[in-house]
């Protein structure tokens, strides 16, 4: 049975011509600085309840893709950090194929950022420091759940949680489970801004060996810190 809503007729109004995203609007021609600037605007947008929510795509050893939402927890000069159980589906994918893609969509701003790069584990001391910054209930939850494994029921999880609480008491330190952070080192970052006429703005940054040889000043432009940038057709 098809949906009672005509999905093909749905149209959302995006930005107008006076709000186009131009190359000259980019203060520093590299993606990390621009990402932080866009993120600051997203953080100040009340309609965005979770502006650090990001879709993470991975691929397993057989080339089968999977996708899920994670929370972006830090942006460093090296890239983008998120945390997960190291036995999870995504972690198993990354172990055999570290090439990942992350997408963030901020509907009220009519903006999207696509990130492609290579994921690697961060130092354990960094994971431990962040783990103990989390609310205690979240720490216990991470310890109780062997993410992505089969379990018999919700009650099973609740029982494990109660066992951990009884063992640790109210003040015992929660040990770090098989859990930690990943850093995505980006090689491609695309900034998208929607336009009502569907002539959307897409500006892409790329970095890699000998990539500056592609710079011609017309289609491919020299950026900063080894990046080049280019405008893509919508």
Give the % helix: 10-25%
State the fourth-level CATH superfamily.
Electron Transport, Fmn-binding Protein, Chain A
- Principal-axes geometry comes out as globular
CATH class: Mainly Beta
CATH fold call: Pnp Oxidase, Chain A
Largest sheet: 10 strands, antiparallel
Average pLDDT score:
95
Along the chain, the helix and strand elements come as HEEEEHEEHHHEEEE
Task: Indicate the multimeric state.
Answer: single chain
Strand content: 25-35%
Tell me the number of structural domains: 1
- By CATH, the architecture is named Roll
Radius of gyration: 21 Å
Quickly give the structural class: alpha+beta
User: What is the straight-line distance between the termini?
Assistant: 33 Å
Q: What's the number of helices?
A: 5
Low-confidence segments? none
Number of strands: 10
Can you give a write-up of this model?
This protein is an alpha+beta fold and 234 residues long. The protein has one domain (14-133, 178-231): Roll (Pnp Oxidase, Chain A), CATH 2.30.110.10. The protein is 23% helix and 30% strand. It contains 5 helices and 10 strands, in the order αββββαββαααββββ. It has helices spanning 31-43, 89-96, 124-131, 136-144, 154-168, and strands at residues 53-59, 65-71, 74-76, 79-85, 99-106, 111-121, 179-193, 201-206, 221-222, 228-231. Strands 1, 2, 3, 4, 5, 6, 7, 8, 9 and 10 form a 10-stranded antiparallel sheet that branches. Strand 1 and strand 2 (65-71) form a beta hairpin. Helix 4 (136-144) packs across helix 5 (154-168). It is globular. The mean pLDDT is 95. One of its GO terms (biological process) is pyridoxine biosynthetic process. InterPro entries: Pyridox_Oxase (IPR000659), Pyridox_Oxase_CS (IPR019740), Pyridox_Oxase_N (IPR011576), Pyridoxamine_oxidase_dimer_C (IPR019576), Split_barrel_FMN-bd (IPR012349). Homodimer. GO terms for molecular function: FMN binding; pyridoxamine phosphate oxidase activity. Catalyzes the oxidation of either pyridoxine 5'-phosphate (PNP) or pyridoxamine 5'-phosphate (PMP) into pyridoxal 5'-phosphate (PLP).
């Amino acid at each position: 049975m098809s949906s009672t809503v005509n999905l093909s007729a749905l149209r959302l109004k995006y930005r107008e011509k006076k709000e186009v995203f131009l190359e000259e609007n980019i203060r520093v021609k590299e993606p990390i600085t621009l990402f932080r600037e866009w993120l600051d605007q997203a953080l100040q947008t009340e309609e965005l309840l979770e502006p650090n929510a990001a879709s993470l795509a991975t691929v397993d050893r057989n080339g089968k893709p999977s996708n899920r939402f994670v929370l972006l927890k830090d942006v460093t000069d090296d890239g983008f950090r998120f945390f997960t159980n190291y036995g999870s589906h995504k972690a198993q994918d990354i172990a055999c194929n570290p090439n990942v893609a992350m997408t963030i969509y901020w509907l009220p701003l009519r903006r999207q950022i696509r990130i492609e790069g290579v994921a690697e584990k961060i130092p354990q001391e960094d994971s431990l420091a962040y783990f103990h910054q989390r609310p205690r209930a979240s720490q216990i939850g991470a310890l109780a759940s062997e993410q992505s494994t089969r379990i018999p029921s919700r009650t099973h999880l609740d029982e494990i949680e109660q066992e951990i609480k009884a063992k640790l008491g109210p003040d015992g330190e929660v040990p770090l489970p098989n859990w930690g952070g990943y850093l995505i080192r980006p090689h491609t970052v695309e900034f998208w801004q929607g336009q009502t006429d569907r002539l959307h703005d897409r500006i892409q940054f790329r970095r890699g060996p000998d990539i500056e040889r592609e710079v011609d000043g017309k289609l491919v432009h020299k950026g900063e810190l080894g990046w080049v940038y280019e405008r893509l057709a919508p």
